[in-house]
Specification:
204 residues; alpha+beta; 3-stranded mixed β-sheet; 2 helices; disordered N terminus
């Protein structure tokens, strides 16, 4: 009897460690380029990013979409698909499992790159990007911008006023730029100085 009880407890313990999948039906618009004058092109790169220890998201660098952060993770990369019937809109089912450092309550962020596509394995220096998150439930969403409960199915939307939502169009603009890390900039600066010095020496 004791053996059966212990076996039952072991099975229960192992079952609690197994995670079901979480589904987020992510959708919305409008997504623009560097101003509201131009929609982001069809196929533009979008990402759902999570911060697993805080609500601070590190800016992307040419080496990494998460800027080398130890606690930021790209849950999924996908393409702008005009699934809602007009330019600058998207719809994407995102399915993932909890575990490791990824837990319910972790902050989520939508990020887009109008000049990049899924073919870009890392960002490009100078590439514009935009990002969005909010702590409240809005725009036909069933959750706020946080990782939801294990096994749940959720709607999460980013919707500007032009699409019938509450967000200003400026929220959809890619108003930031991928910049090299300070150490990379310093190395580039040293290279330029070195080349200039070499050039002067050759002329004398």
């Amino acid at each position: 009897m004791k053996k059966l009880l212990l076996l039952g407890l072991a099975l229960v313990s192992s079952a609690t460690l197994v995670h079901a999948t979480v589904t987020i039906n992510l959708a919305g618009g409008n997504i623009y380029g560097t101003s509201t004058a131009t929609f982001a092109p069809l196929g533009s790169l979008l990402q759902l990013v999570v911060s697993t220890t805080d609500s601070v998201f590190t800016a992307p660098t040419p080496e990494s979409y998460t800027g080398g952060s130890l606690d930021d993770m790209v849950i999924m990369s996908f393409a702008l698909n005009q699934a809602l019937g007009s330019p600058g809109t998207f719809a994407q089912a995102i399915v993932f499992a909890l575990g490791g450092n990824l837990n319910p309550g972790d902050s989520l962020l939508l990020r887009w790159f109008p000049t990049l596509t899924l073919a870009n394995t890392t960002p490009v220096a100078g590439a514009p990007y935009g990002q969005f998150r909010v702590d409240i439930i809005e725009n036909f969403s069933t959750i706020a911008w946080f990782v939801p409960a294990d096994g749940s199915i959720n709607d999460l939307n980013f919707v500007t006023m032009a699409q019938g939502g509450t967000r200003p169009e400026s929220d959809g603009v890619a108003n930031m730029v991928v910049v090299p890390e300070p150490s990379t900039v310093a190395l580039l600066g040293l290279s330029v100085v070195g080349l200039a010095a070499y050039s002067r020496r050759r002329k004398t």
